[in-house]
Fold this protein.
Amino acid sequence: MNNILKLFRRMNDKRFFNVSIVVVSLFVLLPVIHVSLKAIVIDSSYYNALVESGLLANGVLNTIELIVKVGIFSAGLGFSLAYIMTFYETKMKAIINIVLILPLGIPVYVAAYTYTNIYHTFPFLETIFRSDFFMNGAMFIYVMFLYPYVYIASKSYLSKNLTEYIESAKTLNRSKLYTFFKVIIPLSRPVIVGSVLFVIFETLSDFAVVEYYGELTLSRYINIAWFNQGDIHTASRFAVYVLLLMYTFISLEKFSRRNKSRNR
């Protein structure tokens, strides 16, 4: 123990920080490396059957459709609510703010079971849960219970960073609508995209909701391959596909941001 303490004393802050980063990175990467190695195995009858039947391609398309819809609608809902709660005075504002954050504390699969049990009582809910656009209700559940990621991040950003720009727009006699679309949204783009990525990652990592509503996505295929078929190699391969989707979305965001900075 004394030797370890002496070693820490000899290390300067920068070196200690670098070592800590390396150690933490290794712990984070270990599961990814393990899954990637498991995914290398090619011989899998279950995987081959999914490819030949076209179910795998359908699952990939369903996954992309789901995360795109969830991302767009959660961004619109979360940012709009953040804008209203930041720039407009309402009664019981503190209580409403808490209510808008509460869905984040409810597991999405619990929300799915609850809404399914009550949707017959409300005609509009029945319409949503029977709609192909809402993917049998799966998209609705993800949006309604994950949008607080966007709401919390956007509200914090709007309340601290845009006052001067809004005042400048008022000085130039710009309308609120013009200010919202031409000033507020472009300046808030990084925080919107960053928080939407959290929503997308949560959606990709969940299999309970899509399984409950019968939607075939990659996360559901992981569950089927691992627990139903006992095929950990195929499950690992699907997990790698999910990681690739995440990496693709992050890369697209970085690429679009780089293009915008060049255009300026």
Observations:
- The chain has 14 helices and no strands.
